[in-house]
Amino acid sequence: MIIKIDESWKFHLNDEFEKPYFKELLTFVKSEYTQNQCFPKGTAIFAAFDQCPFHRLKVVIIGQDPYHGVGQANGLSFSVNDGISHPPSLQNIFKELKRDIGIAPPESGNLERWAKQGVLLLNATLTVRAHEAGSHQKQGWETFTDAVIKMISEKKENVVFLLWGGFAKKKGAKVDATKHYVLTSGHPSPLSANRGFWFDNKHFSRCNDYLVSKRIEGIRW
């Protein structure tokens, strides 16, 4: 099966696509999308890669699952389609942006504008069954996204990894911190944020300060 993903990523991931686990994963995903309502839409499964080509990559933000409500997921972690209400975690991300660098919360929660500047908004699991959080976990996606993170760490330099919450920290554990800038904090979900583990982490300004120090253009958050 031909994987429809941006060519700059396909070059680095072709070997992964040929592994038995990935072929089994594709069989599972095809079956799920045939038999159930799943998100994001099929053409957006690899949107995080398509919107952020490998050569443009500057920042990685790791999420867990796509949103499982109708019309929400667009293939980018924490992002929702235009016209969709901002989920609680995204609301807190925008609140921290306001506190950190003074940017007012935008009307749209679609983060494509970040992705196109070089922010890889990567969910650990790229698909989900409608209204069933975690329903596509442990089918192979986590193995694939671990391989993506490892490949980025090995083949790139000076990438900023924003690891929010325990799950993301575990996913990013193999990032070579001698080559990259790793920032960690609590998750932006209300449970974590309201306990003081999210707000005032200043990840957005710290990210740009690092990029500029390496003569890389910062992100227009």
TrEMBL record:
The keyword DNA damage applies. Its main location: cytoplasm. It catalyses: Hydrolyzes single-stranded DNA or mismatched double-stranded DNA and polynucleotides, releasing free uracil. GO terms for molecular function: uracil DNA N-glycosylase activity. The active site is at residue 65. InterPro entries: UDG_fam1, Ura-DNA_Glyclase_AS, Uracil-DNA_glycosylase-like, Uracil-DNA_glycosylase-like_sf. Keywords: Cytoplasm, DNA damage, DNA repair, Glycosidase, Hydrolase. HAMAP family: UDG. Excises uracil residues from the DNA which can arise as a result of misincorporation of dUMP residues by DNA polymerase or due to deamination of cytosine. Belongs to the uracil-DNA glycosylase (UDG) superfamily. UNG family. This is Uracil-DNA glycosylase.
